[in-house]
Design a protein that fits this description.
341 residues, alpha/beta, Rossmann fold, Dihydrodipicolinate Reductase, domain 2, 2 domains, 7-stranded mixed β-sheet, globular, binds nicotinamide-adenine-dinucleotide
Length: 341
Amino acid sequence: MNKKIGVCIVGLGRAGRFHLKSIKNLDIFHLKYVVDTQLSEDDEVVQQHDFKLLKTIDEALNDDTLNAVVVSSPTQFHFDYITRSLDAGKHVFTEKPLGKTLAEIQSCFDLAAKKGLALYLGFQRRYDYNFKTLKSTIDQIQPIKIIKTSSRDNPKPSLEYLKISGNIFHDMLIHDFDMLIFLLGTRVPKSVFAFGHAYDENISTIPDFDTALVTIKYDKGLICSIDTSRTAIYGYDQRLELFGEHGMAIAENERNHSVQLHTAEGMYIAPINHSFPQRYKAAYATEMADFGNGILNQQLNNVTKKECVLGHLLANAAHQSAISGQAIDFENYMASQAVSF
Ligand SMILES: NC(=O)c1ccc[n+]([C@@H]2O[C@H](COP(=O)([O-])OP(=O)(O)OC[C@H]3O[C@@H](n4cnc5c(N)ncnc54)[C@H](O)[C@@H]3O)[C@@H](O)[C@H]2O)c1
C-alpha cells in the first residue's frame, strides 16, 4: 500500500474521539468517514474536522479506497460492524469488548483470518509504558505469588451507557483480565470467585454492580485480586502490583504533575489523572499506530484469538460467581463451553 490508509470511524463518542485524535496525528492514516447515528453536521466535532459524516456504513464499505474501519460504537453493535467490514475486505480495529458471546468472538477472529485482514482490539493498557515496564520485571522477582490490581473508573459513566454496556465484568474488568493475560500468557486459572455490589440504586435495577472484587487462583499457588469501582472521587485509579519470591514491582498512578508541597501542616501532592483520556493518552496513540503498522506489515493481530477468548470466559465466570455466590471451577467451566487450550 503506497498511499495513506483510508479509515472510517464508527461511533464518535468518548472512545471515538480519542481515536479521532490519534488518527489525525498519525501520518499513515487518512480519515475519510465517520458513521454515527446521532451526530449532525452542526455538531462542533464535525465542523472542526474534515471527514464525511454518514448515518449508515454502506457508502464507506462500498468505497474501494477505504482500507480500514475503527469500531467505537456502543458494544451491542460491534459484532455487526466488524463482520460487515471484514466481509467488505476492510481491516478492523475494535473497541473492547469485541463481542457479547464466545461465538461472536470466535467467528470474528475466524473471518479475519480467512480474509487475511487485520483484527486489532482496543486493550490500550498493553501499550502503556508503566505496565510494559512492570511486565519486564517479572523475571527478576519470580516466582510471582500475588498479583493485585486496583481499577477504579472516574467519572461514573451515564446510566444510558451502563444499561447497554454488558456488565461491569465485560465492560470494565475485561481490561484487568486482559492485563493478567498480558502478564501471564494464556495460563488457565483453577478457580474464580467474585463479590459484587451496587451502591447506586439505578445501577442495581439494570441489574448490574458498581463495585466488585474478583479473586483468581492459578496452579502453583499464584493468587490474583482485582478490585474495581465505577467511580473514585479522587480520580482515575489504576494500580498494579506484582509480589514475588524475589521482590515486588508496582505500577503506580500517574499524577497531573510530580511536584510535592511540604509545609508545617503536612504534604500536598497533585491529584491523579482525572479519567481515561488523560491517563491513556499516549497508549491510545500507540495502539492506533500499531494498527496502522500492522496493516502495512501484515501483522494481523495485537491480541490472539486464544487471549481474547480467555478474557471473555474470565468475565463470564466472575459474573456467574458474583450472581451465585459460588466459586467457579474454571477448568470445568472452560470444558462446559467446549474450549480447551
Ligand atoms: N478502551 C477504552 O478505554 C474505552 C473507553 C471508553 C469506551 N470504550 C468502548 O468504546 C465503545 C463506545 O463507548 P463510548 O464510551 O465511546 O460510548 P458513547 O456513548 O460515548 O459513544 C457512542 C457513540 O456511538 C454513536 N452511536 C450510537 N449508536 C450507534 C450505531 N448504531 N452506529 C454508529 N454509531 C452509533 C453515538 O451517537 C455516540 O456518538 C464501547 O464499546 C466501550 O466499551 C473503550
